[in-house]
Hints:
Layout: H1 2-28, H2 35-55, H3 63-89
Helix pairs in contact: 1-2, 1-3, 2-3
Amino acid sequence: MASIRDLKKDVNFVLGDIIEAVYLWEAGSNNVDSKEGTAIIDKAISIFDDLMAKIHTKDVDNRKAHFKDIRVQLEDKATKLIEELNKLSS
Length: 90
C-alpha cells in the first residue's frame, strides 16, 4: 500500500508546485489574480480531482498497470500545465 500513498503524495506535490509557480509568476509580474493564472490553477485542481478519483477506484483488474497509467497521466498533464505557465513567463 505504500505505492498508493506515494502516488497520492506525488499527485499532491506536483500539482501543488505548479499552483505555487503560478502564484510566484503572478507576484513577480504584477499580474495578481490574472485570468491566465487562474485558468492554469483551475486546470491543476481539476486534474488533481480526476487523478484522485482514479486512484480511489476499487474495481480494477490489474492494479499495477492502473497505477502506472495514473503516473503517466500525471506526468503528461503536469508537463502541459508547465508549458502553459512557461508561455506566460516569456
